[in-house]
Design goal:
The complex is a heterodimer of chains A (111) and B (121). Chain A has no helices and eleven strands. Chain A has 111 residues and is mainly beta. Chain A has a single domain, classed as Immunoglobulin-like. In chain A, strands 2, 4, 5, 9, 10 and 11 form a six-stranded mixed β-sheet that branches. In chain A, strands 1-3-8-7-6 form a five-stranded antiparallel β-sheet, with no helix packed on it. Chain B has a single domain, classed as Immunoglobulins (Immunoglobulin-like, Sandwich), CATH 2.60.40.10. In chain B, 0% of the residues lie in helices and 45% in strands. Chain B contains no helices and eleven strands. The model of chain B has no long low-confidence stretch (mean pLDDT 91). Classes of the chains: A mainly beta (111), B mainly beta (121). Chains A and B meet through strand 4, strand 5, strand 9 and strand 10 of A and strand 5 and strand 10 of B.
Chain lengths: 111, 121
Amino acid sequence: DQQVKQNSPSLSVQEGRISILNCDYTNSMFDYFLWYKKYPAEGPTFLISISSIKDKNEDGRFTVFLNKSAKHLSLHIVPSQPGDSAVYFCAAATYTDKLIFGTGTRLQVFP
Amino acid sequence: GAGVSQSPRYKVAKRGQDVALRCDPISGHVSLFWYQQALGQGPEFLTYFQNEAQLDKSGLPSDRFFAERPEGSVSTLKIQRTQQEDSAVYLCASSLASNVAGPSSGANVLTFGAGSRLTVL
């Protein structure tokens, strides 16, 4: 029973264009959603988060959108850069419980 | 230190051997988590400490897995009688806050180490 799902294992985007990474969840009790980025041989690093009381959070080139009725969130990267090439994990939690991660989406940004 | 440090980075064990994986969290961080990441999967929760207290061990896959954090800083994850299905990257993460998740603020974001890659032959 996977509570957080990332259905696209990989995504390839041209430099300068928009990257859109998607995530679906099943637990309506989640309060808190995050995106982590992972380079090879490194641990995941925190990228951006959103509380369930919001529908959008923006930080520079990164924007996360939350659609609670659809139990769906997405990460937009604009403009995409080659250094953004990494695996992106969506994660979710309630305020009193641990983070649950999706399976990840590998983003490749090509020149 | 500046980040979460894990050792060894790579460990090869023969099936049946015991292994111990170490995590040095960021100094002063109250919460410490262990996650297991199998190839092609996302990190899966194993266990959680608040200082020296192990508050949640619901993710430990069997009684061959044991974790401790006796003085509320360094933590060790021990796997006894390793099996091939134990092959994975074991990630340690710490955070300043005492609650498990919470609103996104500097105190509550988990900082991960680079992981220990265990291969069981």
